[in-house]
Amino acid sequence: MSESILVPPPPAFAQGALVSSRAAYEALYRRSIDDPAGFWGEQAARIAWHRPYDAVWDAHARPGEIAWFTGGRLNVSYNCVDRHAARTPDRPAILWARNEPGEYETITFRDLQERVGRLANVLRAHGVKKGDRVCIYLPMIPELACAMLACARVGAVHSVVFAGFSADALRERILDADCAVVITADEGLRGPKRVPLKPVVDAAVAGLDGVRRVLVARRTGAAVQMTPGRDLWLEDELARQRATCPIEWVDSEDPLFVLYTSGSTGKPKGVLHTTGGYLVYAATTHRYVFDAREGDIHFCAADAGWITGHSYIVYGPLANGVTTVMFESIPTYPDAGRYWQVVDDLRATIVYTAPTALRALLREGDEPVRKYRRDSIRVLGTVGEPINPDVWRWYFDVVGDGRCPVVDTWWQTETGGILITPLPGAIACKPGSATLPFFGVRPLLVDDDGKILEGDDVAGNLCLAGSWPGQARTIYGDHARFLANYFSRFPGYYFTGDGCRRDGDGYYWITGRVDDVLNVAGHRLGTAEIESALVAHEAVVEAAVVGFPHPLKGQGICAYVITRPEFDAWDREELTGALKEQVRKAISPIATPDRILLVRGLPKTRSGKIMRRILRRIAAGELDPAGFGDTSTLAEPAVVDDIVALARGRG
Ligand code: WTA
């Protein structure tokens, strides 16, 4: 059993590590639980405060009413940029690895201060004030990090939308957060592809009077349409501004950003993070989980459009004064050696990526890895989905040559930073397990009736007791939804939506979502969103979407669709093609169903509830009705036989 395999921290690493033994971890963990104010107060001392906070936190606050470091004033841009520019101006802050292999650009802390200052002045010149929301729809170019930090500098709230989302999805997010300014680029580059961005923004903001200004960065020089009075080239605007931009000191609990993520129901949620607690948490987790120190080159291969990029490309490393890599390309461009080429060229010391990328690379064998020097690497990390034990082994043995600890980090957009993870010098790993809670984190497993499962060797719904500084504070504009979503299913606790097992040694194994959220190639998608995209097509009467195990993506998307009789004459292929296109247009290519089954009916209970359990089994290729469980409440059992026959027919 993989469960019994223990991989201790490589001794040479453990020796010099920040936390270098299990006992040291336990002592610090105990302290963080027994005296959260003392523990987090010490961590907060690594951040510069303009005005000291009055209280670390309120232990008696109601669940869902969260505040940390109250009364304190600070600025994230000052902490991530200015204080390092003063001390280590020539240290690289950002190493930008451009899309084409071998092309790099270095931005020192001094450069970053200038670039952020200019951009912050541009925002001010266009009327952006404290509390205003700014939408950022940019590819992985330095302007993305600069724009985030510029918003923070003037106290504005950024809403970064991953530059793969469609015009419809972008429009919905711009409207929800009421953004008056959008920052974008002409195009993005992703491996061999050019990704048009400005035309997407044009479509997204068409007719929206609230959007006053669209600032456009030039990445490829592609010809784009500029709407007079609304659109301006970012570089022209930057040239008008000086680099010095006074700082807007904000309250600890003033919002820093909104980031949209998928839930099991309804529209995407604008998860809101505030300033003091988020920054302390991002910096503290970055430091301990990656054993980060001055001189590290932190290479997180995520996109800054997701929470991983927010916390571990931009805010965590920069708050700690650590050089961060921004990777514009994809892991397989021009070939499967690309990550390791970046490591070799930049002498990266920390690598952090998603299992889905590693699965794709493993398939290409060891040669593309071995070709490059990897002796600079100290720590390897993964995030976003469970990692298969064989992939973990490959990462450890081949990529890290058995020298580098692997940290499998579990967390969520809502948690702001890593919650369950090994510490690289302290915890013996079990491949596939995220192991143990980070400092201050109190995981609980709860059964469906709300009973807390004590002891080890139990499985249930993963909840968290108490609070930690990086916890989301609300859903933008809908606090009732925040409370209902996260704090009502198991009153008194934050419910993660994940299932989890705690093994005989107290190690945590995330088993995947227990709600209707999919994890496709590390991307979080709501089945409800995909279903509403499908039913928006004129041919569709009803749709049900489920996930199925997929060797590369972790989960694939299977859609069962009932179409209108008028469309019976259509070519099946053409119709499913049109439906896939519909989803791409409404959400993003990442949400495109892998399979669409055109069915005559959906299995429903007599009360009209779709029995997704059956659809999941069929999508997984388990067509034997004996495995469908209790089907006695089905309104029309024949519907299931039809679907099974259809699935069989597909071979
Ligand atoms: C899943 C990404 C297993 C989980 C930072 C969670 C993981 C969701 C892991 C959050 C991991 C994340 N092992 N599953 N190490 N990390 N997940 O909000 O289901 O994009 O709830 O945040 O990803 O996805 P999100």
Verbal overview:
The chain has a domain at 521-649: ANL, C-terminal domain (GMP Synthetase, Chain A, domain 3). It is 32% helix and 23% strand. It has 20 helices and 30 strands. It has an eight-stranded mixed sheet with strand order 12-11-8-6-7-14-15-23, with helices on both faces. Strand 6 (133-137), helix 6 (142-154) and strand 7 (157-160) form a beta-alpha-beta unit. The longest helix has 17 residues, at 109-125. It starts with 10 loop residues before the first helix and ends with a helix. The relative contact order is 0.10. Bound molecules: 5'-O-[(S)-ethoxy(hydroxy)phosphoryl]adenosine. The site of 5'-O-[(S)-ethoxy(hydroxy)phosphoryl]adenosine has 22 residues, from helix 11, strand 20, strand 24 and strand 25. Residues 25-80 form the Acetyl-coenzyme A synthetase N-terminal domain.
Instruction: Supply the CATH superfamily name of the domain at 521-649.
Output: ANL, C-terminal domain
Overall morphology: globular
Uncertain segments of ≥5 residues (pLDDT<50)?
none
Beta-strand residue percentage: 15-25%
Give the CA-CA distance, first to last residue.
33 Å
Report helical residue fraction.
25-40%
- Quickly give the structural class: alpha/beta
Question: Which ligands accompany this protein?
Answer: 5'-O-[(S)-ethoxy(hydroxy)phosphoryl]adenosine
- What number is the mean pLDDT? 96
Q: At the first level of CATH, what is the class of the domain at 521-649?
A: Alpha Beta
What oligomeric state is this?
Answer: single chain
Number of helices: 20
In CATH, the architecture of the domain at 521-649 is 2-Layer Sandwich
Strand order of the largest sheet: 12-11-8-6-7-14-15-23
Main β-sheet, in a few words?
A: 8 strands, mixed
Q: Quick one: how many beta strands? A: 30
**CATH fold name of the domain at 521-649:** GMP Synthetase, Chain A, domain 3
What's the alpha carbon Rg, rounded to whole Å? 24 Å
